[in-house]
Amino acid sequence: MPRIAMILLLLILTAVFESSIAASQYYTLDESRHVTIVAVTQLPNGSYTGVTADLYVRVACPGNGHVYVETFPLAEIDLQASTRVAAIVASTIANISFGGCDFYASIRSDSPIVGGPSASGVTAVAFASALLRLSLNESIMMTGMIMPDGSIGPVGGVYYKLQAVISRGAKVFLVPYGQTTDTIFTTVAQRVGPLTVYRTVSQTVDLVSYGASHGVVVKPVANIYEALNVFTNGLFSYSTGGYEEAITSIYNSIAPMLRSGIDDMRNEINNVVNLSKSVEQRALSTSYAQYLRQILSNIDNNINNYMALGSKLETQNQLYSAASMYFQALIYAYWRLHLLNAATNSNYISTTANTIKSDVYSLLKKVWSLASQPLDTSKLSILINTVDRLYEALIYMNRSISTRYLDSSTQYLAIASARISTARFWLNLFNLSITPSVMVIRPSDLEELSSSISALAQNIYTYIIAFSSQIPIPQDLFSEAQARYSLMLSTNTSIDKLSLGISSISYMYLTLLYMFMLNESTSLAALNKTIEISLTRLKNSLPIDVPLLLELISGLGTTSTRLYNVARLSMLLSTYVALGVESKPLQSYFTSQSIATPQSISGAVTIMKTITVTTTQQSTYTVTVISSVTARGVQLDLRILILLIFIILVLVILLKLVKI
User: Fold this and answer.
1) Within this chain, do residues 367 and 224 fall inside the same structural domain, yes or no?
2) β-strand 152-153 against 145-146: which pairing, if any?
3) Residue 74 in domain
4) pLDDT tens digits for 5-30?
5) Based on the domain organization, do 336 and 430 belong to the same domain?
6) Is 403 in the same domain as 326?
7) By CB atoms within 10 Å of each CB, which of 13, 246, 316, 478 scores lowest?
8) 462 CB burial (10 A radius; 0-12, 13-18, 19+)
9) Domain count, the chain
10) Among candidate residues 200, 231, 262, the one where a domain is terminated
């Protein structure tokens, strides 16, 4: 019996000792940074001027993923959401779990500033430099909104901000790609006889030349990676590439499914056209006859043209582009069917809309069930794309029943019907046998990221509205953003919120581009740079939608359509990158990258990170990050030490008793 007691005590002692080591062996980081930010303030006469403010950030690890924001005076727009995204983006760059650290941001200004996310880009830079223990050049200032993909989004008042930069004595001013010019409006008084007439005159200012004349280099940056490179005087650098083989492999693995999907779509087009022809004569005998003949001629021409283009792309092995053309033909086929049926049945549109709504929610229930389990990136991408198409079907269904005109109403209904078909295609891909990525995404990871993206969407939405009185908003794009944004606010499901958030932010991004009149080709180039970095980081976990979207944006569609698809792809990639970082415990990011033993008694561990990326433009640049993170080694808590001494004493006494 004493021997058994002794063995048990030995086991307990071993367990306590190991747990004490595990509990006390953790990594800590507590870094602070200061940067000067620029903002805009409104003068009593209603005009605007640039002002500077001080931003102090602190990152403390371990933590719990909390973000604390303090402003004085208070900002007009909540900064919590954009600061949170800045923290998430910074964590992703540093390859450190956002949930394992706490982030603090404090803004101090001498005058009230117009709030908004225009300082969130430099906030992300400050957070990232703290996480990577990189010093910042404080003679550099920056404006630009941080987007979830790490790209620097456009902002207003850049000319006024440059004036503030000049007054502060900075040497370099970083601006969003495409915003090296700005349009300012001045009020000019002109005498007309006895009257004084005031008129507003617009003037385009070349910010590069204006800055140079005052000793400031104005430099555009596409993303936070480029901004960090400048702020750290080149210490932070990166390279791109190495993902091309993975893209080809994935595309080849899903090619048979794409061909099968194309065959199904072709059959559906033929079936729908045949159904429409069965009611055509009856519809043409109504009072709508002449009206219908004109529309039918246009519809039939488009069906034939899109089918021919789809067939051509199919022979060129551009399967997803071909599927996109067949999808357009399918829309026209459904338009033909719905138009002719609606002409003969006044209840047809409402009845069909109800059927579509029922189909949408039936498929959504399947998605929700699948999203409740751990996923890899490919499975997640399939669900995101399915949800996106289902909600687009709902959007067009609602537009159909709220439109009075027969042609518009049935066309919207046709888009909804075709979207249901493509949603089913995407959902069928879920069972496709593809080698799973090493990344495992838990429902809790999904919930955390969807909440952050939802909050950012609200922040950007408010920012756009704040500028609506000064700058015309492209209503066609913004209405698309609003439709998805409203649905995002109404859902409580993580996968729905995530998908709708990505889509709404993509449309908001385009809205901002056109609001600030950014050049489309410049914007495409900037987004491509960010995409290349994300592709490089994901080369071992690329989801199946990436090769398809890359093919689609290579040349099809208008510039505006391509911009949306590129913005959406960049948002999707950043989502997968962020989830990849969050799907691992905090310590793995430090231990897996430690390449040296502690260099001093304090436990500073040198960490080298290399990121390699390649863009669709085939440009190549290299990133090597060298930083140090303080690591606490094995430290025995005093209470644990006392407990161990007590157990040892008991063990010694027992041993003596056994001998007696």
Assistant:
1) no
2) antiparallel
3) yes
4) 555 555 555 554 444 444 434 448 99
5) yes
6) yes
7) 316
8) middle
9) 4
10) 231
Tokens of 315: 């022979």
And the tokens for 565?
């698809």
Query: Would the pTM of this model clear 0.85, i.e. be above it?
Result: no
In terms of domains, do 63 and 152 share one?
A: yes
CA distance 502 to 567: 9
- What stretches of 181-288 show up as alpha helix (H) in DSSP? 207-212, 224-231, 244-278, 280-284
Using alpha carbons only, give the angle 332, 335, 341 rounded to the nearest 5 degrees: 150
Q: Which tokens go with 98?
A: 């956002």
Structural domain range at position 11 = 2-25+636-659
Name beta bridge partners: 620. 614
Structure confidence at residue 637 (pLDDT)? 45
Sign of the CA dihedral with 70 first, then 68, 146, and 171 last: positive
Q: Which residues contact 94 (CB under 8 A, 6 or more apart)?
A: 128, 131, 132, 589
537 found inside a domain:
no
pLDDT of residue 603: 32
pLDDT bracket for residue 626 (50, 70, 90): very low
164 shares its domain with 128: yes
Let me know whether 75 and 163 are in one domain: yes
What per-residue confidence (pLDDT) applies to 112?
65
pLDDT at site 594: 29
CB 393 within 8 A of CB 413: no
Segment 466-471 shows an average pLDDT of 73
Phi, psi of 287 (to 5 degrees): -70, -10
Other CB atoms closer than 10 Å to residue 195's CB: what's the count?
Answer: 7
**Residues for the chain: how many in total?**
660
Is there a contact between 53 and 126 (Cβ–Cβ < 8 Å)? no
Cα 407 to chain center, whole Å?
36
223 and 367 belong to one structural domain: no
The answer to whether 519 and 527 have CB atoms below 8 angstroms apart is no
Which pLDDT does position 632 carry in this prediction? 35
Q: How confident is the model over 32-56, as pLDDT tens digits? A: 999 999 988 777 776 778 889 999 9
User: What average pLDDT does range 580-605 have in this prediction?
Assistant: 37
Sign of the Cα torsion 227, 230, 236, 240 reads positive
Cα gap 419→425, rounded to integer Å: 10
**pLDDT tens digit string along 273-298?**
999 999 999 999 888 788 899 899 99
Residues 6+ apart with CB under 8 A from 538: 243, 377, 546, 573, 576, 577, 580
Ranges of H-type helices in 279-405: 280-284, 289-315, 319-344, 348-371, 377-401
Both tokens assigned to 159: 């000319």
For the ranges 217-221, 490-494, 654-658, which has the lowest average pLDDT? 654-658
Look at residue 11 and tell me if it is in a domain. yes
Q: 102 phi and psi, to 5 degrees?
A: -115, 145
If you average pLDDT over every residue of the chain, what do you get? 82
* H-helix or E-strand spanning residue 60: strand 48-61
User: Looking at this protein, which amino acid is placed at residue 179?
Assistant: Q
Distance CA 25, CA 19 (A): 10
Question: How far apart, in whole angstroms, are the C-alpha atoms of residue 654 and residue 438?
Answer: 50
The residues near 658 (Cβ < 8 Å, ≥ 6 apart) are: 2, 3, 6
Cα angle 249, 92, 444 (rounded to 5 degrees) comes to 85
Domain boundary among 198, 231, 264: 231
* % of the chain exceeding 90 in pLDDT: 49
Could you tell me if 264 and 407 lie in one domain?
yes
Residue 600 within any structural domain of the chain? yes
